Each structure stands twice: as C-alpha cells, then as structure tokens.
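Quick one from the shared queue. A colleague (R.T.) flagged Dihydroorotase as missing a structural entry in our internal table.

Convert sequence to structure tokens.
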Amino acid sequence: MSHTPDLLIKNVKPVSTSHDGSKEVDIRIRKGKIAEIGQDLEEKDNEKAHDAKGSYISPGWMDMHVHLREPGYEHKETIETGCRAAAFGGFTEVACMPNTNPPIHARDVVEFIKKKSEGLPVNVHPIGCVSKDRKGESIAEMADMQDGGAVAFSDDGDPVYNSELMRVALEYSSMLGMPIINHEEDLKLSRPGHMHEGKVSTRLGLDGTPGIAEEVMIARDILLAEFTGGHVHVAHISTAKAVDLVRKAKADGIHVTTEVCTHHFDLTDEEIERQNFDTNFKMHPPLRTQEDVDAMIEGLADGTIDAICTDHAPHAIEEKEVEFIYAPNGIIGLETAWGVTGRRLLKSGKMKLREVLTKLIDNPRNILNLEIPKIEEGAFANLTLFNTDREWTFEQKHIKSKSKNSPYVGSQMVGKAEAIYNNGQFIVNE
C-alpha cells in the first residue's frame, strides 16, 4: 500500500450531499487534499492520472460493525488484513467491536488499536466495552476510553443482559454523548439455537433461535432509552417485528438507531438446507425468513434502519470445517457488501443510489459522532470510487481477509468498489 499523494481522477461522477451523480468532472488531489474540481483538467508533473469513465465517486464509505480480532485472535484476522478487506469492499473507515482478547475494556487497548492502524488507508475506530472484561457485571471506564479514541460502547458477541447495568450504561454514555450498541438477545430464549427457529429448523432437526429472543431485548432497551434519555443503537437487526419496534420508537421520539447486515436483507434460513449445512451460512443473529428479509429492505427504504453494515466476523478454516452445531457463528462480509447491496437494493429498484449511500456514508458517522467527508476543494480526500452495474462473480481470489468464511463464493454480484483514496493512499482493486 504505497502513498500516492498527487492524483488526478478523470471523468468521474460525484455523488454526495452537493453532487447528484449526473455530471462528469475531474478531481485533482494534492498532498491528500482535494485541490481542484473541474472539467478537462490537464495532468501535471509528478501526478498520477486515473481515468474513471463511467464510474461514480462518493465520500468514503464506513462500516460501523466489524470484528478485526486483534488483539488475541490474530489467526483469524489482524487490523492490517481486516483493513485490506475493507479497502477492497470500498470502505475507508470501520468501527471495530470489542470481543478481542483482552477485550477493548480500557484505554490502553483502545490506544493499542489506534496505534496499530496508523498509516493504513482505512481509518479504524475502536468500540469500547460496556462492562469490564465483557462480563456484564460492572461498568467499564467509559470516559477514559472516549479520551483514548473510542467512538461507542458495546459488549457485542453477547448482550448487556443485566437491565440495571444497561440503565447505568445509558446514563453514563448519554453524559458523554455516545451510543450503547447492544447485541439484542435474550439468552434464555435463544440458546442453544444454531439457526432461526421455524419450519426449516424443524425439518433439519436443529435447535433454533426464535425471533422473539431478539425482539424482547429490543423492547427492553427502547424502554430504557426512553427512561434514561440515552441513545440505544440496535446491532444487526434481523426480524420484521424488531423493525416495527424501532419504527414505533422513532415515531415516539425515543433515541434509538439501528443497522442491518447485508446478508440479512439477502439470504434466508432456507440456504442452510439448500447448502447442505454449510457452516458459512451460520451466523448470529441467524438467517431468518423471506418475510424478515423483505422487512429489512422496507425498513431501509423508509428510513427506519439507519445504516448498512457487515458484521464482518472472520473465523479460521479449521474452526468452520466442523459439524454445523459445533461451528462458531459469523461470516466475513467486507468484500461482498457492495455487490450484494447493488443486486438487492439498486438493481431491484427498491432504493435509489443516494438513498443507499446515506446508509454507508452519512448515517454511520452521525451515529458515532464522526465527521462526514466532503467532495469539495480544500477538503481532505476520503473517497470511494465505484460502479453500480458491473456484474461479476465473487471468487476465492477476491477474499482479502485472513479468513475465508464467506457464503458468497461463486455468487453473482452487481456493482463493484473500484478503489479508495484515504490518508494519502490510492488503493485500486484490480
């Protein structure tokens, strides 16, 4: 990943709050900043030119829910390899979850991650733990982690199960102006589920996790957010009733936001049967029904669901190549996010381009109180170059993650992230 501070991107269509994607321009970048936007700009000495004819450019995309596994699980992923996968997927920024070893429960771990990500083309924003050691017993040092660079708090991988602790967490975090991102799961209702509880799990003879296990916890957290005035962010929403709960809470003025993973608006629990118990279709929340998938798309379209994320969760091959009930939950998703989004939301006509980009650019950063990049002269260049109509097949060679646990190998994608520019680096995918 080499530094390319001076670059001229030719014949590209900007899409942002101030550009509608209808007009081709040239964008000159010098020393990491947008120096000039115009037409028919001439290439200068010591300047690399890139012809982007037919492509769009937007402010850099952000995935607010990834697992980079470092520290502690570097055999699955590292900060560097996770950022490599993010760059391939068109993401210039990610927020990483704290279920590492040690967990991100203190300022020194936050600063370790920030230090390790320095110099990479993808900005990494650590999410600190809600509770010490993620044990759900006592509050972690939130203000200190915020000072070190944490952007939110979560015990993701497990819910904040203790209601009193969740109340205190919302009160503390509201004083800091930060959200609590909760993994919404009533453990007594959900486990030992290995997939969605329904007709398919019954046919397959697998213990299932019912949708109500998610919905009960979301209802609790909405009530606690209303009571405390705090900000609850619902992680990886997956059921139709859950979307309805968030929709009603927003209408009531409660500070709740949510995200959906690309696989939850694309795949259903029937894939597990069709794919003969392929463990790359095992994740948590599990794949749900077609009704739930349709509800995710509707929630995105009407604004109930704020952000698109991946829950990128790498696992080593030997961990996934076991019987279905013994395999860990989680799939990688950074490399396939845009191709799935293009196929499901854009090509289908369910959403317009700018509406989709809001879920990848503006909303994740607004939720995490981060600055939104701009396409204007004088701004730092934080950009994603992409197309919306290229049809391609996702193959093993496209996986940049250290782990290979994707359900999408061999699948058709629509739309491709072509390159990113961030931190003075131009990373082209081909």
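The chain has 14 helices and 18 strands.
The CA atoms of residues 392 and 413 lie 5 Å apart.
Added to the table.
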